[in-house]
């Protein structure tokens, strides 16, 4: 069933990203380094050490000692675990040592089901999960075994991937969980860790209900596949094209670390992986929730989306601690998971993006969670409010809030209508106002020629999702191509916490179009800053009942049957923006910007001449945004 090797070549340790280049340079210069008695020692084949290297050894001595001693505290091994259909899954296992001796007592184990290689070869060294996630070493030191598995059709594992999140992968997770639990070094208690795809596979594993899976800790995990790839019908082509190209390279060009008693395995796996499905081509051919490809037995989105298995996941009752960030592409998904599960659960939302979690003490939070559920230690983790969230831009010392339910108690829906301008002034198409008073039946209409160069940038929550750059700059350039609606300067701070919802009344000279709405914070100098966004494709505007708890937000069936062109008369487009907790400071303004294109982040059909779009703001056809406002404590008291 398995192939096992002891003492697999370790990768860089807790500070490996800084130390490994020096180790590689020393290796190329035939310099051997080791530790003894807490001191660094070296020798060279020539007997002489290059002066530059000698200086580096002196300067980095402490880092090298820490790295080498950390590596010495781990026993690593690699295995092949054979699945029910003969597919072999490559698994790394790391067990802690104490005073140089392997811990023999059975320990709980944490593992991840990895789409992106459990470990890699980097210039002759093996780069493992302990290197890419240094916080795992603290988990290891606390008395856990750590494991990582290449998902079927990836890394050094055999098999072919027909789809992502397929049922075979979920059945594999069941078998791997129970294989780990049956090892003599494991006490039978299993947890799972990991982010993004590795977070999704945790939910899917929980839905399979392996008896030994006690708790999971998914970070930044997808809930509804269609709502992500085609929110409101608009296609996030840039993400899936780049992500698809990345996994294709990983599957067919980048060799994962082999199972060391079977060194040809990784190369053979690459050849097999060439038959993996082209994820971009598949996604591009499925425009509706009920679309299907040639050869599909069922509806792909219904079969692949993790949300379709939420009932089984909830029934399994595996305790779940989620972590996400306000600028993660799946932040709405985290709240949907939380709302649809019924077992023990917690949610931590920071001021983070998909790949950036600066300031998060991952080791501490994982230990509090897993010590409670896998070791029976009273860490107090379940005595706290279920949700802890960062209040962006809040005064120092008031950045974090907690709540037992979402949205937090006290949130009031504040409707802000689109009005005539000038307001800021803003450098936009119209410079409209954003006001609390409903417009008269006469009201007005704002029209603009669609600008197909409009973009929210090339360093967004979407580019960050596939490992691209992140960091929103001023939204001024996007505002130039937009209709904007801006409040007067605030007299006191205003906190928006929850899910904004926009309703646009529109007409157009074209039968379809994409409508992007941005909530922005305009500072005292008149510079607008990104807060959150939402999008709808006009032909998919129909509303319907969600197949899960959708937090009372608008749900779009986006089916072939419900799709319809824009008529000549004005119609409402109702959709939510990604959730946020943001404090607008006194003197700042709130702005809503509306465009019909986000060139770098979504695929919009370009037409010549460009369509002329009208946003209506009168009587029963008044466009508005509903903001979830959390009043200050003194206001709530009154």
Tell me about this structure.
The protein has 638 residues and is of the alpha+beta class. Helices cover 25% and strands 29% of the residues. The strands form 5 sheets. Strands 1, 4, 5, 6, 7, 10, 11, 12, 13, 14, 15 and 16 form a 12-stranded mixed sheet that branches. Strands 17, 18, 19, 20, 22, 23, 24, 25, 27, 28, 29 and 30 form a 12-stranded mixed sheet that branches. The protein is globular, with a radius of gyration of 27 Å.
Provide the descriptors you would attach to this structure in a database record.
638 residues; alpha+beta; 12-stranded mixed sheet
The count of β-strands is 30
- Summarize the amount of helix as a percent range: 10-25%
What is the radius of gyration computed over CA atoms, rounded to a whole number of angstroms?
Answer: 27 Å
Classify the secondary structure makeup into a structural class: alpha+beta
Treating each run of at least 4 consecutive H or I residues as one helix, how many helices?
A: 18
Oligomer designation: single chain
> What average pLDDT do the residues reach?
92
Unreliable parts? 1-16
Gross morphology is globular
State the separation between the terminal residues, measured CA to CA: 67 Å
Beta content: 25-35%
The description of the largest β-sheet is: 12 strands, mixed
């Amino acid at each position: 069933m398995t192939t096992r090797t002891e003492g697999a070549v370790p990768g860089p340790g807790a500070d490996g990203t800084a130390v490994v280049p020096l180790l590689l340079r020393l290796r190329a210069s035939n310099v051997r380094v080791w530790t003894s008695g807490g001191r660094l020692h070296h020798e060279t084949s020539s007997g002489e050490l290059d002066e530059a290297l000698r200086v580096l050894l002196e300067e980095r001595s402490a880092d090298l000692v820490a790295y080498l001693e950390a590596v010495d505290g781990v026993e690593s091994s690699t295995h092949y675990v054979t699945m029910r259909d003969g597919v072999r899954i490559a698994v790394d296992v790391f067990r802690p040592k104490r005073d140089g001796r392997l811990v023999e007592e059975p320990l709980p184990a944490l593992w991840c089901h990895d789409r992106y290689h459990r470990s890699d070869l980097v210039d002759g060294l093996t780069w493992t999960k302990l290197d890419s996630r240094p916080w795992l070493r603290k988990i290891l030191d606390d008395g856990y075994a750590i494991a990582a598995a290449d998902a079927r059709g990836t890394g050094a594992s055999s098999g072919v991937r027909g789809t992502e999140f397929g049922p075979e992968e979920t059945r594999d997770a069941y078998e791997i969980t129970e294989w780990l639990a049956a090892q003599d070094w494991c006490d039978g208690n299993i947890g799972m860790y990991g982010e993004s795809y590795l977070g999704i596979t945790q939910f899917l594993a929980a839905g399979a209900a392996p008896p030994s899976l006690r708790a999971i800790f998914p970070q930044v995990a997808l809930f509804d596949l269609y709502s992500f790839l085609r929110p409101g019908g608009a296609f996030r082509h840039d993400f899936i094209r780049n992500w698809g190209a990345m996994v294709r390279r990983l599957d067919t060009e980048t060799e994962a670390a082999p199972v060391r008693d079977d060194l040809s395995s990784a190369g053979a796996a690459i050849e097999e992986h060439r038959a993996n499905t082209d994820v971009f081509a598949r996604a591009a051919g499925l425009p509706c929730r009920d679309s299907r490809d040639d050869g599909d037995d069922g509806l792909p989105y219904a079969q692949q989306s993790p949300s379709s298995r939420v009932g089984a996941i909830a029934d399994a009752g595996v305790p779940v601690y989620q972590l996400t960030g306000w600028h993660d592409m799946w932040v709405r998904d985290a709240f949907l998971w939380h709302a649809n599960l019924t077992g023990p659960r917690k949610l931590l939302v920071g001021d983070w993006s998909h790949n950036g979690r600066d300031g998060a003490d991952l080791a501490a939070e994982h230990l509090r969670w897993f010590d409670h559920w896998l070791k029976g230690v009273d860490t107090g983790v379940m005595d706290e409010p279920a949700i802890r969230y960062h209040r962006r831009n809040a005064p120092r010392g008031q950045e974090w809030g907690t709540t037992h339910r979402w949205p937090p108690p006290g949130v009031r829906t504040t409707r802000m209508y689109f009005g005539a301008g000038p307001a800021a002034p803003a450098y936009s198409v119209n410079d409209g106002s954003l006001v609390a008073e409903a417009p008269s039946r006469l009201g007005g209409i704002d029209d603009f020629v669609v600008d197909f160069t409009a973009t929210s940038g090339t360093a967004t929550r979407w580019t960050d999702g596939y490992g691209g750059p992140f960091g929103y700059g001023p939204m001024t350039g996007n505002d130039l191509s937009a209709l904007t609606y801006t409040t007067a300067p605030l007299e006191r701070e205003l906190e928006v916490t929850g899910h904004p919802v926009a309703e646009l009344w529109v007409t157009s000279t074209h039968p379809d179009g994409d409508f992007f709405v941005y909530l922005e914070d305009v500072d005292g100098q008149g510079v607008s800053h990104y807060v959150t966004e939402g999008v709808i494709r006009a032909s998919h505007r129909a509303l319907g009942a969600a197949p899960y708890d959708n937090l009372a937000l608008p749900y779009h069936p986006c089916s072939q049957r419900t799709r319809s062109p824009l008529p000549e008369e004005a119609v409402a487009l109702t959709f939510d923006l990604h959730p946020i907790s943001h404090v607008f400071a006194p003197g700042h303004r709130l702005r809503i910007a509306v465009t019909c294109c986000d060139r770098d982040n979504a695929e919009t059909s370009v037409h010549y001449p460009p369509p002329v779009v009208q946003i209506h703001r009168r009587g029963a056809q008044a466009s508005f945004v509903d903001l979830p406002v959390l009043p200050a404590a003194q206001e709530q008291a009154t």
